[in-house]
Amino acid sequence: MSPSNVRMNLKRPKKIVTLVTLAMLVLICSGFVLASQIKTVYQVSYKGTTIGEASNPEIVKQWFQNEYAKFSSEYPDIQFETNENDFSIVEIKRLNAKAADEAVRSSLQKSFVVQGRGIQVIVNGKVMGIVKDRETADKILNELQQSVASAKKDLKVQALSYNGEENQDKNDISSQPTLKSIGFVEPVKLETIVSDPSDFISEADIVKRLKGTDLKPITYVVKEGDCVSCIAQKFNISQEAIYTNNPWIINDFINIGDELDLTVRQPKLSVKTEEEYSETVSISGGVEITYDKTMRVGVSKVTNPGKAGKKKITYLMTKVNGDLVEEKVLKEETLDKAVPKKVTQGSKVIKGVGTGAFAWPITGPTITSGFGKRWGRLHAGTDTVSSNRDIYASDNGKVITADYNSSFGNHVIIDHRNGYKTVYAHLSKIKVKKGDLLEKGDLLGIMGTTGQSTGVHLHFEIRKGSTQLNPLKFLD
User: Fold this and answer.
1) Is the pLDDT of residue 461 over 50?
2) Same structural domain for residues 358 and 468?
3) Residues 246, 315, 265, CA angle at the centre, nearest 5°?
4) Is the Cβ–Cβ distance between 286 and 338 less than 8 Å?
5) Of 275, 276, 416, whose CA–CA distance to 351 is shortest?
6) CA distances from residue 445 to 6, 85, 162, 428, 471 in whole angstroms, order as listed
7) CA atoms 293, 299, 300, 301: torsion sign
8) pTM for this structure?
9) What distance in Å separates the CA atoms of residue 467 and residue 75, rounded to the nearest whole number?
10) N or C: which end of the chain has fewer CB within 10 A?
């Protein structure tokens, strides 16, 4: 091979190396150019759907903080809930990626929700309003109860224990009522709720709503078996409201077919209290008469003046918003037994003269309406019921009335010939006649519902002269 050929072969590899080097340099330069065009952005998604790309995650976080601050500034006392957890942020690297922060903020505004979290007060199935928290709701309900419990509204028993000022014994002692329970008539529910903050109301506004009244126009036609207290319980209103709306009612007399106006304004939330009350009353020992045949007729002498006893009567009063709606005797306790006055009377034993010690005229009595002045009118006797409808003479005496009238219906009046008379009204049957001499416990009639009465019961009175007395002070 000639030297010239050798030189040619040596030069060709140099050209190849040069081309390869140039290509590598081009690739390296291109790589540098592409790397400089790859950008980092932060993809923002709502419930898995992309809503924009931000240049920095702090932009989104700061936007949330600004919204919280605005809510707290406008509604400082209301806790809030948001849907922040529905949003996510993912870092993305992409060629020529471009962030759009304002577009992200706009999308956040459309999807972001902030609401108040409070307590919904529901009375009798109806929403009264939303307050900021349970503590506030409990405070409102407690203050409503306490306002009724602490109100000094007619603390004295209004019916069963009433003795009448003209007949009040100076030795009778009454206690102050003791609160046994307090609650609401209507069902109350407190439920957590998330709602627009504009739906929340202040403490003063919800108290106003709860104390607000609904006018309930009611006309009721009296049916068989009705009584004033029964109707009051049935419609959850006070007896006072019935008497006020129907001033024609006297001595609780109502007839089948009478129309009663029961229209009454009642708060949307009524407070019910039970109070225990007791009074110590003096009880008569009665009079025991001994007949002396050696003494002439009409002559008598006191051999033992006797003494009054004491009895403690405990009542349970149920009130709604301070108005008495029910009252019942819980127990009677004899504290000091009465000693009867003993009198020796001339002449032979005379049948039909009372002892002055009265017995219940029915067995197993349950009091349904007691003696006393109620709302400006006097209920002059005691109404009682029993499973045994036989009526018996409360003491020895002479029947002076065994007749019918429109008020008492079939009724019997016994003169005990010692200053006392007893009245037995609304009988279905009379078993005695005028002029009969009766001993204590003799059958005189059957319980009924005649006259101005709609429920089967006995109306029983004890009278001294023209004064009507509280039977509970005399009965064994």
Assistant:
1) yes
2) yes
3) 30
4) yes
5) 416
6) 159, 83, 28, 8, 19
7) negative
8) 0.52
9) 69
10) N
